[in-house]
Amino acid sequence: MFDAAAPSPNFEADWNKPPTAPMLVAIRSEDGKRIPKMMRWGLLPHWAKDEKLSYSTFNARSEDFTSKPALRDAWKHGQRCLVVTDGFYEWKKITGKEKQPYAIAMTDGMMTRAGLWSRWKDPKSGDEVLSCTVLTCGPNDVMAELHDRMPVILADNDWPKWLGEEAATDDQLFALLKPCSDDALKIWLVGEAVGNVKNTGPQLAIPV
Questions:
Q1: pLDDT digits (tens, 9 = 90+) for 13-53
Q2: Cα–Cα distance, 82 to 134 (Å, whole number)
Q3: How far apart are alpha carbons 81 and 133 in whole angstroms?
Q4: Contact (CB, 8 A) for 158 and 175
Q5: CA distance 162 to 143
Q6: Chain-centre distance of CA 71, in angstroms?
Q7: Are 56 and 69 in contact (CB under 8 A)?
Q8: CA–CA distance from 146 to each of 3, 10, 187 (Å)?
Q9: Which string of DSSP letters, residue by residue, matches the chain?
């Protein structure tokens, strides 16, 4: 999926990534290649004073993200990315405070979500931090049973357009920001241990 000459990131498997954790993304390099990067989950615009802002920018609504100060520079500069995971968890409200966690994955292959990325320099240490956000949209019928939002999941043939490998107008890019088909997803019940980010093992995704 990536340029064969690009260095492969070395990262530990994690079945319960919280915001600010490192995420695997694909971006288009300056010489036009599709390369992998590890980025902090929660976008930090170049003007952020500290890392706290990233806790509120791990997701971005596809309907209005271009008007948000923290996100519009990334969009303006074409810093679009693919956020690659096996899936995600969502909690369904049952009654009152009672909630049930579910795992959501693709029926076939990985889950590749539309995202934006940014480059930020820590004013204290001078270190460069790469960060990303996931764009969300309204739910398809399957996800609507759990939540009123879902990530924008891109089909394989839409990746080149989103990354800028193929020419596309803004309207054509906005048209990609829609829910995937119902039959593209599989959903199953998981245990409540996923609610604690200290739990990271594969047992979290076992159906219950």
A1: 999 999 999 999 999 999 999 999 999 999 999 999 988 89
A2: 9
A3: 9
A4: no
A5: 23
A6: 14
A7: no
A8: 37, 33, 10
A9: ---TTSPPP-----S-PPTTSEEEEEEE-TTS-EEEEEEEES---TT-SSGGGGGG-SEEETTTGGG-HHHHHHHHTT-EEEEEESEEEEEEE-STT-EEEEEEEESSS-EEEEEEEEEEE-TTT--EEEEEEEEEE---HHHHTT-S-EE-BPPGGGHHHHHTSS---HHHHHTT-SPPPGGGEEEEE--GGGGSTT--SGGGGS--
Is residue 192 assigned to a domain? no
141 is a domain residue: yes
Q: What is the CATH number of the domain that holds 145?
A: 3.90.1680.10
Is 43 part of any domain? yes
On whether the pTM is more than 0.90, the answer is: yes
